[in-house]
Specification:
With 221 residues, this protein is an alpha+beta fold. The chain is 52% helix and 8% strand. α1 links the parallel β1 and β2. α5 crosses α7. The N and C termini lie far apart (36 Å).
Length: 221
């Protein structure tokens, strides 16, 4: 049995869930709150981060390590594909969203709106939120630029780069902080991604006390 310890507001967890769904893997989810991780999680992953992948007693933590493991052991469909140059571009874009977007958008918006509320019972800081929303515009403009030139982020083929970006954007979209009408090509690309069968469970995610935006699960926005 494949067990993924995750939280549905974690973009890295969503990334692995979508990847496994694309590979048509059967897996079980166990939820952990990232702002209040149990001691058990800290024991199996000293980094104190989600997700954690467990299979046949083997424990793999860190979304990059899990991604590489899945690509090596479940090669169909190949989502880190192409020649050396193409694979490098996919990895670059994955790192862009897992690192840069996470630091400049997720930590400003989701930490303020979700983590502070559930961990400390505090309200978000409007200045920090504003900074995060400003950063978000820059990233959406970049996605718009990429998707104007190709069907997907790293070229015409759907890859791990699209999964990674959509996983991060879906959390922000859940909170209703994306004005898609300002980003024509990004909107068209995201509509295609969230219409994929692998994305359907993501669109059913809910967070108690925080309802999703009205268009969140609407495939046509």
């Amino acid at each position: 049995m494949v067990l993924l310890i995750h939280h549905n507001i974690s973009p890295h967890s969503r990334k692995i869930r979508i990847l496994m769904a694309e590979k048509k893997m059967l897996f079980v989810l166990k939820e952990e709150q990232p702002w209040n991780l149990s001691n058990d999680i800290k024991k199996i992953n000293p980094a104190g981060e989600l997700p954690v992948f467990i299979f046949d007693g083997n424990i793999i933590s860190g979304n990059y390590a899990i991604t590489e493991y899945l690509e090596e052991n479940y090669p169909e469909p190949r989502l880190l594909s192409g020649d050396n140059k193409q694979r490098a571009e996919i990895r670059r874009l994955c790192d862009w969203f897992d690192t840069k977007f996470y630091k400049e958008v997720y930590q400003y918006i989701v930490f303020e709106k979700i983590y502070k509320r559930f961990k400390d019972g505090l309200s978000p800081d409007s200045k920090i939120l504003k900074a995060g929303l400003n950063n978000l515009k820059y990233h959406l403009e970049y996605i718009d630029w990429l998707t104007e030139r190709n069907n997907n982020l790293a070229g015409n083929k759907f890859t791990l780069a699209d999964i990674t970006a959509a996983a991060h954007l879906s959390v922000i979209d859940y909170l209703g902080d994306i004005d898609w009408d300002n980003y024509k090509y990004a909107k068209t690309w995201y509509a295609k991604v969230k219409s994929r069968p692998s994305f359907q469970q993501i669109l059913k995610d809910t967070l108690k006390g925080v309802p999703p935006s009205k268009h969140y699960s609407n495939l046509d926005f």
